[in-house]
Amino acid sequence: MTTEDHSNTQYELPENYNELKKAAHRTADWQQRLHAAQELGQYDLPPVIDLLQHLMNHDPVTAVRVEAHKQLRGLGQDVQLPERHNTELFNHMTKTLIRIKKSLPREHTYEDFKDKLNKMRADIYNAYEGEKGEEFDSWLRGKWESLDLTRNPKKTPKTNTRTEK
Questions:
Q1: CA distance between the termini of the chain
Q2: Of 5, 37, 50, 87, which alpha carbon lies 20 to 30 A from 81's?
Q3: How far, rounded to the nearest angstrom, does the alpha carbon of residue 53 sit from its chain's CA centroid?
Q4: Global pTM?
Q5: Contact between residue 100 and residue 149 where contact means Cβ atoms under 8 Å apart
Q6: CA 26, CA 5: separation in Å to the nearest integer?
Q7: Residues 146/49, Cβ–Cβ less than 8 Å
Q8: Tens-level pLDDT at each residue, the chain (165 residues)
Q9: What is the rounded CA–CA span in Å between residue 74 and residue 55?
Q10: Pairing of β 9-13 and β 2-6
């Protein structure tokens, strides 16, 4: 058993707790986070409950959030699954995709773009792959086709804040 201080109390945690904790925070692998949530649900201990609550409230992939919620309910916790407020899982997603597309030769293919996204931003690739499921390829292809390379991702249009008198 592993011990951990939590609010000045020591708890006997399962031997694999540190590995599960690392897996729960592995941003580039939603399947490992899902598996960690499933495993953590076997232990009704405050540090585990805190970790499951973190997954439920902050994971970008709905399947992981739902699993953490399910495990917390199974442990007798009175929790509500929070609603996702925005449609993008990551801030500045379009800017990131434009930068990746611009870094490729003009005649690159969708597969080139997809591979480069996976290499450069495995966290984004993996999270959207988990969130979109079977629709991932068609969603990503649509994003790739719609990217406007004439736009400078570093500059956002300024609005006129001056008022004429």
A1: 73
A2: 5
A3: 15
A4: 0.75
A5: no
A6: 22
A7: no
A8: 555 555 557 888 889 999 999 999 998 899 999 999 999 999 999 999 999 999 999 999 999 999 999 999 999 999 998 887 667 888 889 999 999 999 999 999 999 999 999 999 999 999 999 999 999 999 999 999 999 777 555 555 555 555 554
A9: 15
A10: antiparallel
Q: What is the DSSP string of the chain?
A: -EEEEETTEEEEE-TTHHHHHHHHT-TT-HHHHHHHHHHHTT---HHHHHHHHHHHHH-SSHHHHHHHHHHHHHTT----PPPP--S-SSTTHHHHHHHHHHTS-TT--HHHHHHHHHHH-HHHHHHHHHHHGGGHHHHHHHHHHH--TTS-TT--PPP------
- pLDDT value at position 66? 94
pLDDT of residue 8: 53
Place of tokens 């960690």: 36
Q: What are phi and psi of 117, to 5 degrees?
A: -60, -45
For residue 64 the two structure tokens come to 């992981």
